[in-house]
Amino acid sequence: MKKMQEINEYWERHKGDPSILLPARGIQSRIALFEKNLDKKRVLHFGCSDWPYTKEKVFEKNLLHQDLEKVASELYGVDLSEEGIRIMKEQGIRNLFTGDIYTLAEDKNLADKKFDVILATEILEHLVNPGMALDSVKRYILKTNPECRIIFTVPNCQNFWHSFISGLRKKETVHYDHKFYFSYRTFRTLLEEIGFETEDFYFVTYGRGHRTMKGKIMIKLFSWLFQCLSPYLYFKCRVKK
């Protein structure tokens, strides 16, 4: 926490500068961070179905929501895809709703629920208006539990593969449905404009490499050499008091 306090103090001093020193936090596995921060917590997971890959991931036990079931004390999932939710329900996954992040604050299915953590993983880059979605989440938190934390992961615009390797090949490697990529500065600025404050931050990897010795070694090595070029950004936030 001391390191994050130093980062926040630096941010306050320099956020008006045209360039800003990126936090030296090292690379973490996003799933390892989820497991740590969601342990024994009441959790609302946005984008839980990972549509259109739901069916294959559910059967391979490779769906993030299935990992979260093992650590959260109570887990709810919301997704815009009715088909994705249907497939998950057929496999015995409970507490699932079809819903829209833009209208979260008005969602009757969740109006009486109180969560410790809201998880929004790789969602905002798919939206036409991420600021409106963030405002909806903020209003829901203030309505149900102002002490609730929210964790975001978003694609890093400085991802080594996208920004360098693909450039050398004169190609653009991007998900067909992505509208945005973010940097540490642009996403943190957006969060603050909407009314969130950052409690924790990391550059993160996507998969489960932290569970193998080889993966742990690679993450440790790249943490100091290439952390700013990692695929994703992790922000743990709360609504500003």
UniProtKB/TrEMBL annotation:
It holds the Pfam family Methyltransf_23. It comes from the Bacteria. This is Methyltransferase type 11 domain-containing protein. It comes from Candidatus Nealsonbacteria bacterium RBG_13_42_11.
